[in-house]
Amino acid sequence: MARKHSKRDAYRDEPDEEDVVVPPVPCWLCGRPVGKTIVWHHPVPKSRGGRDTVPMHSICQQTLVATFTNSELQRFGMDVEGVLANPAVRKFVDWVANKDPDFTATIAKKQR
User: Fold this and answer.
1) What is the pLDDT along the chain (112 residues), one digit of tens a residue?
2) Which residues fall within 8 angstroms of residue 110, CB to CB, at 6 or more apart?
3) Cα-Cα-Cα-Cα dihedral of 111, 92, 54, 80, to 10°?
4) What are residue 41's phi and psi, to 5 degrees?
5) Which of 15, 14, 9, 109 has its CA nearest to residue 66?
């Protein structure tokens, strides 16, 4: 069966998916625009009743998980300023500020 309209119809009103420009989404922790990979992080862990998600870089999410326990993350909730008050997190955010949005590195494991 033939198409009613061609893919490149000059009279079509709606834009192609390639033509749509999506503004970059800022990371919840560091504020840099996220790259190709977006991690949807629960600031309040799901095990503690968290439902809201925020966009983050994978390296930023790994840093939070390595630095805080679920109980600590629950206490902070959606307050990013409380998280940034931690000296280790502040040092990380200052270090990653000039990196590429798709930058990734290994993060130290959580101390048990």
Assistant:
1) 566 656 665 666 666 666 667 778 999 999 999 988 899 999 999 999 989 999 999 999 999 999 999 999 999 999 999 999 999 999 999 999 998 888 888 776 666 5
2) 65, 66, 67
3) 90
4) -95, 145
5) 109
CA distances from 11 to 8, 14, 35, 99 (A): 9, 9, 34, 43
Cα separation, 70 vs 48, whole angstroms: 7
State the Cα–Cα distance between residues 62 and 66, nearest whole angstrom: 6
Q: 111 is written with which tokens? A: 């101390």
Residue type, 72: E
Distances (CA, A) of 44 to 20, 47, 54, 89, 94: 33, 8, 10, 17, 23
The domains of the chain are located at 39-97
